[in-house]
Write a structure and sequence with these properties.
Layout (H helix, E strand, L loop, with lengths): L2 E5 L3 E4 L4 H14 L2 E4 L10 H14 L7 E7 L6 H9 L3 E6 L19 H10 L3 E3 L13 H16 L5 E3 L5 H8 L6 E5 L1 H5 L23 H13 L4 E3 L8 H4 L14 H12 L5 H13 L7 E10 L4 E2 L5 E2 L7 E10 L1
Parallel strand pairs: 2-3, 3-4, 4-5, 5-6, 6-7, 7-8, 8-9
Antiparallel strand pairs: 1-10, 10-13, 11-12
Bound molecules: (4S)-2,6-dioxohexahydropyrimidine-4-carboxylic acid and zinc ion.
Length: 349
């Protein structure tokens, strides 16, 4: 196959940051995706509709005017999110979901939820309003092995949540294990779906240690064993509608990754669609590629499917070693210096 033409995709999980960093990355996403669910883990986080709307305005101002891109905003759930803010969010055309970060689970999650019971009023309102909950599915605490965090989260938090809120619609974000795949498949498709990143489809935990410690492959949830990667690949390619694209592209300056305490996050936005194509090619099956990238997410979020198309061509190109990241910073993209075999031709009206 030499070309792939598909409905323009959406990125259902994206970190755009703010200020100069955002200006440096937002157009990478806008060149490929029509819309993206924008994560609220700024510092301080986006906890109100007013903040989300102001952030959305800053994103739109940073866009290349030649590109059209719609940021779909989210709120950051805290122990104190009042139900009135949820009602406001549901009424806002800009806000599409609320994000649950267990406190301490990942980057800028210190204002996240310390105990899920503290959020019951907000969850009740979300259930009533039909506003989806996006979960960072990792149990926290030193007693939990980092490679088991997702599995333990399912048992301790997600399963009870689905029982206690039978109408709540949930996206299990950036899943990394066969346990998560099995759990999603065991539930009602209208209530639970999952996003999968390109990096979790393409690398396993060996990549963290290949040739020495590689901080550019460190993200949260951390990449897992090969058998889990295979389960994700099978889910993405064979279970249309239940799993869809969410890059979790999460840029950090190079010096913050290459330090004694490298931060979590992989920057995949420069080439996300090409990377997903590479993964589907590995599985040898493009049958559900368009569903995974371009239609399943829209269906879950109850949004129209995009009308533009994009075309990928079979062409080798080399990912730059570094990209500018604003204010003298630089960014090391996923697959830096490597040859990619699919190239995006650009969005067509
Ligand atoms: O690797 C990650 N980076 N995982 C997250 O959940 C957050 C993200 C970030 O914001 O850097
Ligand atoms: Zn994320």
């Amino acid at each position: 196959m030499q070309t792939l033409t598909l409905i323009q995709p959406d990125d259902w999980h994206l970190h755009l940051r703010d200020g100069a960093a955002m200006k440096a990355v937002v157009n990478d996403s806008a060149r490929q995706f029509a819309r993206a669910i924008v994560m609220p883990n700024l510092n301080p986080p986006v906890t109100t509709v007013a903040e989300a709307e102001a952030y959305r305005t800053r994103i739109l101002a940073a866009l290349d005017p030649a590109l059209s891109f719609e940021p779909l905003m989210t709120l950051y759930l805290t122990d104190n999110t009042p139900s009135v803010e949820i009602v406001r969010a549901a009424a806002s055309p800009s806000v599409h979901a609320v994000k649950l970060y267990p406190a301490g689970a990942t980057t800028h999650s210190d204002r996240g939820v310390t105990d899920i019971r503290k959020t019951h009023e907000a969850l009740e309102a979300m259930q009533q309003q039909g506003l989806p909950l996006l979960v960072h599915g990792e149990a926290t605490g030193d007693a939990v092995d980092i490679f088991d965090r997702e599995k333990v989260f399912i048992e301790r938090t997600l399963e009870p949540l689905m029982r206690d809120f039978p109408e709540l619609r949930i996206v299990f974000e950036h899943i990394t294990t066969s346990d998560a795949v099995d759990f999603v498949l065991s539930q009602d498709p209208g209530r639970l779906v999952a996003t999968i990143t390109p990096h979790h489809l393409l690398i396993n935990r060996n990549a963290l240690f290949k040739g020495g410690l590689n901080p550019h492959h460190y993200c949260l949830p951390v990449v897992k064993r090969e058998e889990h990667r295979q389960a994700l690949l099978a889910a993405a390619t064979n279970k249309p509608g239940r799993f869809f694209a969410g890059t979790d592209s999460a840029p950090h300056p190079r010096h913050a990754k290459e330090s004694t305490c490298g931060c979590a996050g992989i920057y995949s936005a420069r080439s996300a669609v090409e990377l997903y194509a590479t993964a589907f090619e590995q599985a040898g099956d493009f049958t559900h590629f368009e569903t995974f990238l371009s239609t399943a997410g829209a269906a879950f979020y109850r949004l129209p499917v995009n009308t533009a198309t994009i075309t990928l061509v079979r062409e080798d190109w080399v990912m730059p070693e570094r990209l500018p990241f604003g204010e003298g910073e630089e960014l090391v993209p996923f697959r830096a210096g490597e040859t990619l075999r699919w190239k995006l031709q650009g969005a067509n009206a």
